[in-house]
Design brief:
The chain has 494 residues and is of the alpha+beta class. The chain is 13% helix and 26% strand. The strands form four sheets. Strands 10, 11, 13, 15, 16, 17 and 19 form a seven-stranded mixed beta sheet that branches. Strands 1, 2, 3, 5 and 7 form a five-stranded mixed beta sheet that branches. A five-stranded mixed beta sheet has the order 12-21-20-14-18. The longest helix is centred in the C-terminal third of the chain and has 15 residues. It binds copper (II) ion (CU). The site of copper (II) ion (CU) has 6 residues, from loops.
């Protein structure tokens, strides 16, 4: 984008700019027609206009059935095995087999019934975040209803007059930190203008999973696993769009941290919050949006810049996996002591500086491992037990990691600051093969070594590359396990 005027034309969709960018708009219209022909046909039949369904990469959509004029959904709160990274399966709590739970999509004005079964070992309650529904349907345990007992069921039913990016979540604080949230999209009666060609949802979560355990520590405030839709980079599935398409991304956050989400290569406007669509007069250009806890933000832009662009949380600690104090020093030196005793663990030093080799890693920065010297652990991505020695780790090579030789200078160990506490061995961490999927087709070799935490790509592709990926995706669809047996229906309004 050359200047602000171009930006306004393209992203705000201001009519004055249309003639100046015929190519982009032609592509955009063409794609709209080509992509969802059958939606279009039906929409025309009904004399209504089309709404693009929201894609939630790596998360299924919750099917429904019609019971008279009521859309009926069925959610099961249950323990789930969530594969955050290949082979790294966390014991979380979620809905219908995943954390976050499946995405619900409805239309403004729908009458909705949601049957919630509790398959957890303890009581739960389902809160409909931001919904203007009768108090007894709000899901506030104790005040608006009795908690749903283990093995119990509660049936929620309401009419939805709102539109926007909403979500559902357990209203038990510790359960929220175990993964219990899902996106709830309310499509507007009248499509938003300008219309988008692609619409995505991403839910952000964070977990503190201590070494040698698969269950998150829901008290810990030091999060080492940061996820988009239940996956950490490079396992996140890129958002695939055609060059010139208008794109909406709906960002939802539930955790202990706020996330500044940054997009490379494009400016965007924030068009919606957890309160629904925002008036166009409030849309100013930006490229980073702070999504606070319990908030949602919709961003929109025209994908006018071809390439593979990162979309990620910009908190440095949220761009890492399995972050713990020991990784760098363990991989480059001979392991480190940590914690030691309570006084030192709390930062009261008897000797030495706070950043000295023995103290540094344990001063409030560790993962709360405790007061004994930090041990090498078996679930470190670097496979603890021996310091990082690339070629000496055939077991990891067999897992598909590429283990290239990281580039460090000869005198690296004598440079203050090297290695950082959580120094990640760049190329050595690449696992292109392990995360191979259609959406990653054609990425630069070794790309995965630099993707971690809350990171994904938006891939702005020319038509032929786009088609290629869609073709691969179609082929793969046959192999995918279908977890849900109810048909997913299209979103349209009458
Ligand atoms: Cu973040």
């Amino acid at each position: 984008m050359k200047n602000r005027r171009d930006f306004l034309r393209n992203t705000l969709g201001l009519g004055a700019g249309l003639a100046a960018t015929p190519r982009l708009f032609a592509a955009s219209q063409e794609s709209g027609a080509g992509m969802d022909m059958k939606h279009m046909d039906r929409a025309t039949e009904r004399g209504s206009s089309r709404v693009v369904s929201v894609e939630t990469p790596d998360v299924l959509e919750l099917p429904w059935r019609m019971d008279g004029n009521v859309k009926e959904f069925h959610l099961i709160a249950e323990p789930v095995k969530q594969e955050i990274l290949p082979g790294r399966i966390a014991d979380l709590w979620g809905y219908n087999g995943s954390a976050p739970g499946p995405t619900i999509q409805v239309n403004q004005g729908d009458r909705v019934r949601i049957i919630v079964d509790n398959h957890l070992p303890e009581a739960t309650s389902m809160h409909w975040h931001g919904f203007e529904v009768p108090n007894e349907m709000d899901g506030a345990p104790g005040s608006s209803q009795d908690p749903i007992s283990p093995g119990g069921r509660f049936v929620y039913e309401f009419t939805l007059h709102q539109e926007g990016t909403y979500f559902y979540h357990s209203h038990m604080a510790m359960q929220e930190m175990m993964g219990m949230i899902g996106a709830f999209i309310m499509h507007p009666k009248e499509p938003y203008k300008p219309r988008v060609d692609k619409d995505f949802a991403i839910t952000m979560q964070e977990y503190a999973i201590l070494p040698n355990i698969k269950v998150p520590n829901s008290m810990n405030m030091e999060f080492n696993w940061l996820t988009f839709n239940g996956k950490a980079g490079p396992a996140t599935t890129p958002l695939i769009v055609r060059h010139g398409e208008r794109v909406r991304i709906r960002l939802v956050n539930l955790g202990m941290d706020h996330h500044p989400i940054h997009l490379h290569g494009h400016q965007f406007v924030v068009t919606g919050t957890e309160g629904g669509r925002q008036p166009q007069s409030t849309w100013g250009p930006g490229n980073t949006v702070l999504v606070g806890v319990a908030q949602s933000r919709d961003i929109e832009f025209v994908a006018s810049n071809p390439g593979d662009w990162m979309l990620h949380c910009h908190l440095p600690h949220h761009m890492m996996n399995q972050m713990s104090s020991m990784v760098g020093p363990m991989s480059r030196r001979n392991g480190i002591p940590a914690g030691l005793d309570m006084e030192r663990g709390m930062g009261m030093l008897r000797q030495g500086s706070a950043t000295s080799e023995e103290n540094g890693p344990s001063l409030g920065r560790g993962m709360g491992v405790g007061s004994t010297a930090e041990q090498t652990v078996s679930n470190s991505p670097l496979k603890a037990g021996n310091p990082m020695q690339n070629q000496d780790m055939p077991d990891i090579q067999q897992q598909g990691m590429q283990m290239g030789r990281p580039e460090v200078s000869k005198d690296a160990n004598s440079v203050p600051g090297f290695p950082q506490d959580a120094f990640m061995e760049g190329p050595a961490m690449a696992m292109d093969q392990m995360v191979d999927k259609p959406e990653n087709f054609g990425l630069r070799p070794g790309w995965s070594g630099f993707m971690a935490g809350m990171m994904t790509f938006i891939r702005v592709l020319p038509q032929d590359k786009y088609d290629q990926i869609m073709e691969l995706r179609k082929k793969q669809e046959g192999n995918k396990p279908m977890k849900m047996d109810m048909p997913v229906m299209e979103h349209k309004h009458e």
